[in-house]
Amino acid sequence: MIFISNKTPKIFGVFLLVYFFSLSGFSQSLYDNDLLTKEFHSGRREALRKLMDDSSVAVFFSGIIKTRSNDVDYEFHQDPNFYYLTGLNESNAILLIFKNEFILSDGSPTNEILFLQDRNPKMERWTGKLLGVDGTKSILGIQNAATSDAFDDFKIQFNSFKKVNYIEQKHAGYNLYYEQFQSKLSNAKINADTYSLKEYMAKLREIKLKEELDLVRKAISITCDGIKEAMKAIEPGMHEYDAEAIVEYVFKSKGAEDVGYPSIVGGGENSCILHYESNRKKLVEMDMLVSDVGAEYHGYSADVTRTYPVNGKFSEEQKLIYNIVYDAQAAGIAKCKPGEDFRAPHKAATEVVQKRLMELGIIKTPSESMKYFFHGTSHYLGLDVHDEGTHGRLQPNSVITVEPGIYIPFGSDCDEKWWGIGIRIEDDVLITETEPEVLSACVPKTVDEIEALMKQESLFNLMKK
Ligand code: GLY
Ligand code: MN
Ligand code: MN
Questions:
Q1: Among the four 15, 36, 218, 283, which has the fewest Cβ within 10 Å?
Q2: pLDDT digits over 108-139, tens only?
Q3: Fold of domain 210-459
């Protein structure tokens, strides 16, 4: 390991930082050869077709470009169903999947068609390359493609289908093609089904294929590295945003395109706010820091939380609450087995929290635990951080989080020695045929492991102001 004293010049430290991360494989490009293949996407379209009723059509809409303010847009994020079925990363596209053969106006049969933006060299100089119809055929392997402009004139009688499946779009006003679809559909509303497609997609997306699991594992491994680096670097006097910046630096430099959700990095009283995202506070000696972060890699998100003492050493009170959450999580993870009800991990974790908070005198009855543990313990994880799934019995090859927490804000109805302690521990767990596999075990979790890691030197300490 490279040791750097406090006197090492900063510029040298930054150089070493870049060198260190490039050595450890940090400088990957988005153009890595591990994107989902066209065979994956066509296989998913075929799997959907199998779930659809006879004589039905399913219609999907790509994500839309949302205005942030004036002429600045939010970064585009593809609709996860659209990405899952096509691999296309562009807006203004429509996908039609037919259960049975559909005859196009030139007489040729198809069972799917993709409408997407036409190539436009002038516009591409401003906002980047588009795939176009030819690219769709060669790169996405979708043989029937047309430009989005052709959708309005596309000859299709929706009322000739027994069912027209689609998912209602929340931001309809922004989506010209959704409006065109709605007007084509107006004669056929009787056949419209806005419910089943969600169910079909939940069924498919809940069970991950091997190539999806590879991407989930990669997102989680990057996330572990980010959290570990922040754990080593953080100390009193730094800010929540320093931890956020370190974590996200590692994400980007390891090839993650994005975060799966805004990083939640809350110290002290902010550790008690579930989805705290402003991350501005200066961290002080006795603060616990909840760090709930997830890299997004090729569309798939991680979601990992660790809580650690800013000064590197748990106080007695912090340790007591931490170990309740730790044991509650272990009880939840033990329930991550095929055939268990989706809510079984929550039930197991809640029982531990109730019993142990009563033992400490923080609550008097089990139901009072809701004051301090007020959220669910699990959700599916995948293309969405809160991914689609059936919420029935747990099934092999699905990934869920197990994330109990205890949050005791200032002014709570208990001894004030507990006030300001907020703790969540979150892992991503693969359901297998046998024992659960904790995919995020790569980041320390016990009190001793965390304290030992926090003693290590971080190269980011060199960048301190
Ligand atoms: N990161 C949000 C959640 O844990 O659900
Ligand atoms: Mn989380
Ligand atoms: Mn979560």
A1: 15
A2: 999 999 999 999 999 999 999 999 999 999 99
A3: Creatine Amidinohydrolase (3.90.230)
Return residue ranges of the chain for CATH 3.40.350.10.
38-204
Closest-CA residue, ligand 1 atom 4, reads: 303
Task: Give the residue range(s) of CATH 3.90.230.10 domains in the chain.
Answer: 210-459
Nearest to 39 by CA among 137, 145, 135, 140: 140
* Protein residue closest via CA to atom 3 of ligand 1: 303
pTM of the model: 0.93
Our answer to whether residue 346 is catalytic in this structure is: no
Q: Which CATH class is domain 38-204?
A: alpha beta
Ligand 1 atom with the smallest distance to the CA of 261 is: 1
* Rounded alpha-carbon distances, angstroms, from residue 196 to 106, 138, 441: 31, 31, 36
* Closest CA to ligand 1's atom 5: 386
Residue 359 designated active-site = no
292: Cβ below 6 Å to ligand 1?
yes
Active site (annotated) includes residue 298? no
Ligand 1 pocket member 303 (CB < 6 A):
yes
